[in-house]
Amino acid sequence: MWQREPDTAATGRAGSTWTLQVVLALALAGLGVYVHTHSSPWARTVNGVYQHALTTDDTAVVWPRVQSWLHQHHLAIPAVLGTSQALRFQMPMQGPILSDYSPTHPRVIIQGSPGAAVHAAGSGTVRQVAKLSDGYMVVVDHGAVGESQYFDLANVSVAQGEQVEGGEVIGRLAQKGTPSLQFDMVKGGQYVNPHDYIVFGSAGGTA
């Protein structure tokens, strides 16, 4: 019976990727030990960089770019860094919650004002922009964390494939009436509770 030849090229790439990850991990560990045990000006400078990195939360900006670089170089990092704690999200728009998340109603509906700006809840890549019967829909891909979805926009200011930062304006509500934003989050094809990612304001509203 015919048997498929083993993909030696793929095996070689996997081995070299694993080796590179081990080397990088050892280099970072060695650098950390050096700056902790030495008092040279260079070591103090590196130690300051370490302390700044550990005390400043830049993950919402850096994480999508890190993921893109890792993907391009066929590298992986521990899956624990891909949990919901990896990014800090924010409300896409301030306003009372008219209808909150529940297992049977996965979208959060937020009351807005005419022409109100809608912001990306976190940094990522615009995966989809679509015109629906009741307005525009925008989907932002946040990598391993999942996607955020925005509905009922009167207009949009981003395009598919564009990189956005958390808090960046992605569109606006209608200029008249009592417009609202429908917002949800999806991970692995399943709706997830936005409250696990976002601390919503206490501007009233009903569940």
Overall average residue pLDDT:
77
CATH second-level architecture of the largest domain: Distorted Sandwich
Overall morphology: elongated
Instruction: Give the N-to-C terminal Cα separation.
Output: 63 Å
Q: How many discrete structural domains?
A: 2
Query: Any idea of the CATH topology of the largest domain?
Result: Glucose Permease (Domain IIA)
Gyration radius, to the nearest Å? Answer: 22 Å
Q: How many strands in all? A: 11
The portion of residues assigned to helices is 25-40%
Look at the structure and name the CATH superfamily of the largest domain: Glucose Permease (Domain IIA)
**Structural class of the helix and strand makeup?**
alpha+beta
Class of the largest domain, according to the CATH hierarchy?
Mainly Beta
Written description of the protein model:
- There is one protein chain.
- The chain is α+β, with helices and mostly antiparallel strands and 207 residues long.
- Helix 1 packs across helix 2.
- Strand 5 (135-141) and strand 6 (147-153) form a beta hairpin.
- Helix content is 29%, strand content 25%.
- It has 2 domains: 8-85, no CATH class; 87-196, Distorted Sandwich (Glucose Permease (Domain IIA)).
- The protein has 3 helices and 11 strands, in the order H-H-H-E-E-E-E-E-E-E-E-E-E-E.
- It starts with 7 loop residues before the first helix and ends in a 15-residue tail after the last strand.
